[in-house]
Amino acid sequence: MHEGKGFISIWFFIGLLLFIYGILILGAGLYNLAVPPEHPVVLQNLHAGVWWGAFLLLVGGFYCVRFNPKRKGQ
Questions:
Q1: By the 8 A CB rule, do 22 and 56 touch?
Q2: Tens-level pLDDT at each residue, the chain (74 residues)
Q3: Do the beta carbons of residue 71 and residue 30 sit within 8 Å?
Q4: Which region, left, alpha or beta, applies to residue 6 given φ > 0 means left and ψ of -120 to 50 means alpha?
Q5: 8 A C-beta contact, residue 18 and residue 60
């Protein structure tokens, strides 16, 4: 395509969104660990919000680093 024209990969923005969603979901999951809900859901003991938030943080961070527009040698 157009080399060096300032195009930003869509994957960078997807990684940024995944990273932000990971922060929000992980924060909500950690909050539910600290302050358990009055009526917990059936599988509350699996802490899906913590695991899913951490996974999204890792994947989003990978995409942000891999497709960073300032990175040399893409």
A1: yes
A2: 455 567 889 999 999 999 999 999 999 999 999 999 999 899 999 999 999 999 999 999 999 999 999 876 65
A3: no
A4: left
A5: yes
